[in-house]
Structure formats: C-alpha cells, structure tokens
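Kindly review this record before class:
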Amino acid sequence: MLELKSLSKSYGNKKALDQINLTLAPGEIVGLFGENGAGKTTLMKCVLGFLRYKGDVTLDGEAITRKNISRLAFATCEHSFFPNLTPADHRVFYESQFPRFRGKRFEALMDFFELPRNKLLRTFSSGQQNQLEVILALSQGADYILMDEPFAGNDVFNREDFYKVLLGILEPTETVLLSTHLLEEVSQFISRAVLLRGGKIVGDVTTLALEETGTGLMDYVRSAYHYQADRVSKALSDLTDEM
C-alpha cells in the first residue's frame, strides 16, 4: 500500500500541493488528471523523494528510503535514461541494480515497439525515447510504477496498442499511477480516476462506480471542476462586442 498523508509542497508562497491524502492499493491502474499546474508532476516527484515536502509518504507503513525505493519506478517525459548508452547497455545496468529486473518483459516490449537494441539513445526520435523510458519503468521489477505524460509525442495508434499491452502484462500486485491529459483515451484502461486542481484532490472515483451510475469520465471531470459549458460563447460574445 502506497499512502500519502497530509502531503503538502510549496514553491515560495505558492502551494503546489495542499494536504493531499491518497492511498494506492496493489493492482490498481489509477489515472491522475488535472489542468496544467494542478500538481500532478510535483506529487509524483514528492513520492519519489525528488522534492522536499511536508507530510508523510509510506510504502506498506514504512518511510521510503534506499532500502525500498526500488519498489517504485518512474517514467517521465523529461527522461531519466543515459543518452550516450544503448538500450542493451541499459538492460545490463538495470540488471546490476535491480534484482527483480524483468528481462523477458524488457525484450518483449522492445520487440513490440520495434526499437533497436544497439543504437545510442541520443539518436532516437522523441517518441522512441519515450517508449524506452516506459519499457525501463515497466521492466524494473517495481510494485508501483509512476508515469508522467509517458507518451507525449507518440501517435494515437502506438498509445492505444500500448494500453492494451499494459493490461495484458501487469501482474495483480503491480500498481500504475498514470498522469495524462488524454482522459477519453485512457478511460477504458484505468480502474480509478483521481482529479487534482490547485494542488488539492477534487475527485476520486472508480470507473466501476461511474459505470454503475451511467456517468462518463469526462462528465465526471466537468462536474468536479465546475466546468462552465457556455464560457466559450461568452468569451466570443465579449470579444465581438469590443470590435
């Protein structure tokens, strides 16, 4: 169980996260949604210990330290690989650092994305680099896999196929926290949606609960954000009046 209790983070006088309480259970695929600046990336970096914060982050009741940090993996669009190494080199490095590294999964995903094993990563396209970032996170052997906009720059067919593969390869104990703006695209693959706005959780619901009430994910998000459907027409009207 990954638990966040009263997690807060400020940049100067601005609160990026404000008293976040969140629990992720084994086997969940959780979509983390929110507008730009809502706190999604900051939340993940706090969990991983990349940023200082107030509050508590625990893994099965224990603080996250060097002893258990390998149970967390991170795929980020900012990239965390070594650009002057090849994917084959990364496999060797990961196997030396992570005893639970999933070699067969790594090779299968490399084949799926049709990525070359022996080219330097700095020669890869942006989309290919994102794909390898995800492959490494999924192959590390972690129990909790955090993904921050992992497929920026990839085409819709690659993304859709990947989500299907993801559902097929994850084991019951593996948990994914996926931050993305592509709500409708991932709505069929997640089991739960957590909504952030202004550093606070404004919605937390399972997709099963939404199905039982006949509510679509986008409708739920609009309601939680108090979205004004007529805001565009009002803006256009105001602009027209000024002309």
Summary: The chain has a mean pLDDT of 89.
